[in-house]
Amino acid sequence: MAEDRREALRIENLVVRFQTPQGQVNALNGVSLVQEEGQVYCLVGESGSGKSTLALSIMGLLPNNATIEQGAIYFDGVNLLSSGQDHMRTLRGKDIAMVFQDAQSALNPVQLVGDQIEEIILEHSDVSTRTANRMAQEMLRQTGLADPRQIMGQYPFHLSGGMCQRVMIAMGLVLEPRLLIADEPTSGLDVTLQAEILDLLRKLCREQGASILLITHDMGVVASMAQQVGVLYAGSMIEVAEVIPTFKRPQHPYTWSLIGSLPRLDEPARRLRTLPGSPPDMMNLPNECAFLPRCQKAQSRCRISPRPPLMELEPGHHVACYNPVVPPE
């Protein structure tokens, strides 16, 4: 019998609110997930569903107007929300790293690329500046950049979007973290570059044994990368399953709609399904299911009952829906 893998990350009932001049934004509403070591866990959902907020909560980088009202985030058996800033500083960049969305904006525009990578190494390792320089160059070479020494001496605005993305990946993986959070790592890149970046992430994390929490809104990326999938809608987890059941037997109407909007090479004449309506106002969420106004399977129970909890419909497949989709045979 296969040995159970250890948990890389556990999030329990996380609730995050933002205070704005317009009112309170209910960004995350009781999100829970479990990720195993060495696993690629894809978190998918529309813009504004809470994906990036979840990532920043794990990293301890939420803005000042954010409040974590309840919940826990366990890494290595320690609740990061109560461990203190000093503990987070020792983990951030070394044991938990993040590749931010829009690498050109995430990099410091007035600091050389090499200095930015070396700074991470020197902060968390007892090595010389020369050794840090050598480690940085080797990591850039592994990301597929042809002349690492030249890249190290340039500013981010000298580099293309794809090159900046590779630099961000190098910064994230140079200390071989156990957990890499990649927030829309292929956003804004052309299709060829997207494939290269995803292959690079898959290869480097496989070689280093790292776990990846991959945040995306692209179901094609999910299909090619994920082992486990969590679907977020309006700040709540509405479906959790392994990747094959997610695509073969999607049971939440929202997941079913996302997959139905994908073009298929084996059915070129098939008409793509669109999802009508818009996501709910995160400052005024209803007590019932947030997907109700857009759902084609809603029943009377959906309109009079509180928001459905995640329920296990089959082993390892959880869904928050009173009337889940029954896939065709």
How would you describe this structure to a colleague?
- The chain has 329 residues and is an alpha/beta fold.
- The protein has a single domain (7-95, 177-319), classed as 3-Layer(aba) Sandwich (Rossmann fold), CATH 3.40.50.
- 33% of the residues lie in helices and 24% in strands.
- It is built from 12 helices and 12 strands.
- It has helices at 51-59, 85-91, 103-106, 113-124, 129-142, 148-152, 161-173, 191-208, 219-225, 243-248, 253-260, 300-304, and strands spanning 7-20, 23-36, 40-44, 66-75, 78-79, 96-99, 179-183, 211-216, 228-233, 236-242, 311-314, 317-319.
- The strands form 2 sheets. The protein has an 8-stranded mixed β-sheet, with helices on both faces. A 4-stranded antiparallel β-sheet has the order 2-1-4-5, with helices on one face.
- A hairpin with a 2-residue loop joins β9 and β10 (236-242).
- α4 (113-124) packs across α5 (129-142), α5 packs across α7 and α7 packs parallel to α8.
- It starts with 6 loop residues before the first strand and ends in a 10-residue tail after the last strand.
Beta-strand proportion: 15-25%
Distance between the termini: 31 Å
Low-confidence segments:
none
Do you know the CATH topology?
Answer: Rossmann fold
Q: Which structural category do the helix and sheet elements fall into?
A: alpha/beta
CATH class: Alpha Beta
Written as H for each helix and E for each strand, in order along the chain, the element string is EEEHEEHEHHHHHEHEHEEHHHEE
Level-2 CATH architecture = 3-Layer(aba) Sandwich
Mean pLDDT rating:
90
Could you estimate the helical fraction of the residues in percent?
25-40%
Major beta sheet, specifics? Answer: 8 strands, mixed
Looking at CATH, the homologous superfamily is: P-loop containing nucleotide triphosphate hydrolases
**How many structural units, i.e. domains?**
1
